[in-house]
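Mods, move this if it's the wrong board.
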Amino acid sequence: MTEQEIIGILEDSGALLTGHFQLRSGLHSNRFFQAALLLQYPDKAETVCRFLAEQFKGQRIETVISPAVGGLIVGQEVARALGVRAIFADKEDGHLVLKRGFTVRPGEKVLVAEDVVTKGGRVQETIDLVRALGGDVAGIAVIVDRSGGDAKFDVPFRSALKLSLPTFDPAECPLCKEHTPIDRPGSK
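Not the wrong board. Structure tokens:
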């Protein structure tokens, strides 16, 4: 798939938004990616996640793990494309843990899947969990890398799309100066 085809899928699903947004960081932007709006369409989610999975074919992946909640559908679809099981980590007392009878065997080749990476904290926490359980992290698959190259990992890191969205300090935001109404999309 080309970058334009992926952008087309994101725009068709309403996941790549244009407007005036306040990000969780407090910065403002005229673009926002809401992964859930893509993932609500199983056919579109399957297409993008199959593309991600193809980047790890031949790596002998045994399991795909995702941090809940954002990565659940991504992990499920990537695992389906690879023909392996999908598990997820829950947040408990501020840390990711395996529950629900999920396990990782020592030496098991595990792929981490997530919807979006901005700073990479949840992905790194998932990597640390897998390694603490003795698993071998084979790589990371995300739909959108919006880190601008800042998210760094010690395993292969692949995304369907690298998205550089412009951000503005609120005091310098051209949309604020035009009195454009602001939206705070986050996880709502």
